[in-house]
Specification:
The chain is α/β, with parallel strands linked by helices. The chain has helices spanning 19-33, 58-65, 84-94, 116-130, 185-195, 213-230, 241-250, 256-274, 294-301, 317-327, 330-333, 355-362, 367-376, and strands spanning 2-9, 40-44, 47-51, 71-81, 99-107, 134-136, 143-149, 154-158, 162-163, 175-179, 199-206, 234-239, 279-281, 308-309, 379-382. Strands 1, 2, 3, 4, 5, 6, 7, 8 and 9 form a nine-stranded mixed β-sheet that branches. A six-stranded mixed β-sheet has the order 14-13-10-11-12-15, sandwiched between helices. Helix 5 packs across helix 10 (317-327), helix 8 (256-274) crosses helix 9 (294-301) and helix 8 crosses helix 13 (367-376). The protein binds adenosine-5'-triphosphate and magnesium ion (MG).
């Protein structure tokens, strides 16, 4: 008998021709999440098993598995031979010590000498005599002992189904570049696209020395948290200091933010295209701040051809915060820091900037030079 982690994936996405491809990527992602831990990962009918790990590591493994997209549910349990004695020795370990319970048996091996009902009755009976505090309730039990008799002469025994992260395996839905600030929203936006199977890389703008190193460290910390889910590996940083100074010097103050955002989008698109990414992702939500109006989004979209995905566009701040807490980025996101958008922030930013006005103010700048210099000076690091 051996402790194992049982992984089930969301079958619904795995229909038809894509199945083999999805499963391969899913396997690779599971392996990556388990990196550094001794284990064996085996694909069996309809699920994966993590076996042969060191004692005491089941919780760590389960924790990592819980963050892999495509995992529908998982269980920590035991792999044993399928004799009644084998099953019982595992059942004893997962069974509750008191309260109501039932044994729920699934029999993959139809040649097994006992039916599912008979196995449940035999194991349940033995548990009842071992633990006097137990009673059987087949309709609304407080606990369930699950027994899965497999085709190959082994059995899986476990006590619960834990909900997985859901979604699709990262890597099956193309690649996107997430514009990540140190705020609450953008990490959540990245999480959501990764959950849809997208490989997400990160791009952060800073205005050093107006913003300090702390801002960058914070983004790195957020990137690290995200990397636990989506396997993002790269963070690129670009300075927009000179661009902001130029805008501040030459253009109408009320357009500072609007113009900066157009530069951010242009730079992001260049970086994305050079690195084979297919879209940009932002944490914008309609109406949240002055620049997140439809006019503001139109003005930013006008300078790029790649699609811009805004998965939070219809969310309330409360909903975003709730997700950030669940993902684990919230407490880092709310640490104080200087975002580059707050440098040279105008007292009255234009809320509904007209595109013609934006373009005429922008024509006072050498856009191409500023963009290509910023892109050329970018720094990337593997996480
Ligand atoms: P967030 O919580 O993600 O900071 P926000 O509500 O503060 O968002 P804005 O400052 O208007 O909103 O930024 C909107 C989006 O623009 C962000 O979600 C992010 O995708 C991108 N963005 C803003 N600042 C930066 C930055 N310094 N580096 C990279 N992307 C940024
Ligand atoms: Mg912000």
């Amino acid at each position: 008998m051996e402790k194992v982690v049982i992984i089930r994936y969301s079958e619904i996405h795995l229909k038809g021709k894509n199945r083999g491809y999805f499963e391969r990527i899913f396997s690779v992602n599971l392996e990556k999440s388990l990196k550094g831990l001794r284990h064996e990962l085996h694909r069996t009918s309809g699920r994966w098993l993590v076996e042969k790990f060191e004692e005491g590591y089941a919780e760590e493994i389960a924790g990592r598995i819980s963050r892999v997209f495509g995992v529908h549910s998982y269980s920590v349990g035991y792999l044993t031979d399928s004799s009644l004695d084998g099953i019982y020795s595992a059942a004893k370990l997962v069974a509750p010590r008191g309260g109501s319970f039932k044994v729920d048996t699934h029999r993959g091996n139809k040649g097994y000498p006992l039916t599912s009902m008979e196995i449940s009755a035999a194991i349940g009976g033995r548990l009842l005599s071992e633990f006097p505090g137990l009673r059987v309730d087949v309709h609304q039990p407080e606990s369930v002992v699950y027994v899965d008799v497999r085709e190959n002469g082994s059995a899986l025994v476990f006590g619960s189904f834990e909900q997985g992260a859901g979604g699709m395996p990262v890597g099956v839905s193309g690649k996107g570049l997430l514009l990540i600030s140190g705020g609450i929203d953008s990490p959540v936006a990245g999480y959501m696209m990764a959950k849809r199977g997208m490989t997400v890389e990160l791009l952060h703008f800073h205005s050093y020395p107006y913003t300090n190193e702390g801002a960058k460290e914070k983004v790195k910390e957020l990137a690290k948290i995200l990397s636990r889910y989506s396997l993002v590996t790269r963070l690129t940083t670009v300075s927009v200091t000179e661009i902001q100074e130029e805008i501040h010097r030459k253009c109408a103050e009320e357009l500072n933010v609007t113009l900066l955002r157009r530069f951010m989008f242009r730079i992001a698109e260049r970086v994305a295209k050079e690195e084979g990414m297919q879209c940009l992702i932002t944490g914008e939500s309609l109406g949240q701040v002055a620049s997140q109006t439809i006019e503001g989004m139109t003005s930013s979209n006008a300078v790029v051809t790649l699609p811009v995905l805004r998965p939070l566009v219809g969310f309330d701040k409360d909903e975003i915060i709730e997700r950030a807490k669940k993902i684990g980025t919230f407490s880092t996101s709310i640490l104080p820091y200087e975002d580059c958008c707050t440098v040279f922030l105008p007292d009255h930013p234009a809320i509904k900037p007209k595109l013609a006005y934006v373009e005429s103010e922008e024509s006072k700048l050498d856009v191409e030079r500023l963009v290509s210099e910023a892109v050329a000076a970018r720094e990337s690091e593997e996480l």
